[in-house]
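A quick word before the example. In earlier lectures we treated sequence and structure as two separate objects. From today on, think of them as two lines of the same record. Here is Ribonuclease P protein component written that way.
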Amino acid sequence: MTPPLAPASPTRSGAAEPVGAVSSCAPDGTATATVETLRKRADFLKASRARRQATPGFVLQARRRGDAEPAAGLRVGYTCSKKVGNAVARNRAKRRLREIARALLPCHGHPGWDYVLIGRRDTTATRPFPQLLADLETALDRVHK
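And the structure line, produced from the sequence above:
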């Protein structure tokens, strides 16, 4: 027997956010848009053919969405190959990537862009968190120059 689906949790305004979405912040700290998660392989492949910036902790791929795609909001995807390690190591690395994206992309990302964070072997899971945050900020600045 499968368990019943849980309803989407309401936000402060009473409306439910889409699954996989995170509120973004404006300079004054108010929520303005959402950051959605990339789920389709085609979106990851499009991002792989676009701009990329390597950092010590991970690789950032970024692309501006085309005219035929929805231009509102940010989308972000996370991936770690088996080179990163076993399932536990890959999941740990992806959790850390999700957290740095949650902390920085709403403020430093550009609407209408897709971002993919790719974990690196031995460094994504072990690099100090403040350095991962600095890596993402630097990578975003370089990608958007």
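Notice the following. Strands lie at 22-25, 31-37, 51-54, 58-64, 74-79, 113-119. We will return to this example when we discuss secondary structure assignment.
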